[in-house]
Amino acid sequence: MARQSVRRSLDKARKGKAAAVKPPKKRLAADRKAIAGLTPQWTGAEIEEAFRRFQAATEVPKGELLHDDPYTLLVAVVLSAQATDAGVNKATPALFAAAPTPEKMVALGEDKVRELIKTIGLFRTKAKNVIALSQKLIVEHASEVPRSREALQALPGVGRKTANVVLNMAFGEPTIAVDTHIFRIGNRTGLAPGKDPFEVEQKLLDVVPDKYKLHAHHWLILHGRYVCLARRPLCEKCLIADLCKWPGKTVAA
User: Are residues 138 and 160 in the same domain?
Assistant: First the structure.
């Protein structure tokens, strides 16, 4: 009987914990409404004010991937696909110490690269891509990272989002790389709703004032990573809570 009582208590505790982390129905319904594109649109003045606040809070936001130059940035971003920046940053110091250039990466070899990045998700495919893109940089680009989107996306393992990050961080282009955080913010807040990352990107490029575009990518990513969280957004800490159109906000407008 005592064991059954303990077991019931444990089951009750587990259920209580699960309920505590499960988003409330109102919030889930609000997210579904946002994904369907039903959140009210922002005015130009509201968008201007939002980015004015982001800039006032952090004038020059920084990406969190460790790198030393365009090549190590490119590799780090390729490794970050379906992985966290923190996880990538644990593996890349040793990798970049051993192979900071395309030539040294190719000389290091796929097996060694795979060993050095094995803590990162999809590490086998990523090791193969890192070697292949390094070879292509040597043969086609004189070991330099190209500055065009087309050339970047022709590299193994490089898609539109990766190209946008490299163009923005390495070459100062006003691109906006839409990751899961920016996709969520664009839809949830009504700032730039879209059915896929490309549509959200295009809407952001349309609505974000030119003077804010260079850093918009990082302001939004960091906001999504640390404030506008997927499961329980910290609306009470949000710089733009009064502007946000999301009906699931946890603070009054």
Answer: yes
